[in-house]
Amino acid sequence: MSANQTLHTAAAAALTDLLPTVTALRAAVHPGGLPARVSVTGTVMASFVGALSADIALVLTDAAPLAGAGGTDSSLVSLADVLRPSFERATSVLGAGVLGQSRTEDGAALFSDPETVIFELTGAAETAGWFAIRIREHAPNGAGARASDESMIGKLGRINNVEMTLTVEIGRTRMSVRDVLGLEPGRVIELDRSAGAPADVLLNGRLIAKGEVVVVDQDYAIRITKILDVAEAVG
Question: Which of 31, 60, 91, 198 has the fewest CB neighbours in a 10 Å radius?
């Protein structure tokens, strides 16, 4: 078994370990691809960027129980949110990196790609869903990589005026769905960062810098204290 095949299997096993299903699921490679009867219009997908990058997708035979886990009286928690911890566990086997935002869309392109490995998820002798993963290896350091970098730099001038989302994050925490739905005014949420610690600066969800929060003309602002290189950003 090749290194990538091992990673595919490890990712699928990690995903099923954390899927909040009533019965435990088993993941087995399905070499025949996704059966034609399976609809992929409501596929939950995400992309991982790191030393190894990957696209992953999950289709459940019956997503209603998990979708309902967010509460039927609130749209605060979506199916993608419920599956997020499982996606994080699956991509953790790929090493350091950043998992992009989970999204729900048509997964036909990923499931039909010959580079994609598809797993059938079964529990209680029934198919519970399908997991797809496509791992992309980056070009090695050297002349080829340098040529690619130079080509990319030459194209940047075309997108200089494109606006991107810059986000400042002072900390994170994890909460159960019950606690999220129970939030009310006055509730204090403790974050995973001490007072005075630098804030994270994210560009389209990717960590690029560290900084400190300041006030400018009664508005909050961020003073950049450190720009991270690629290795630090995904570490």
Answer: 31
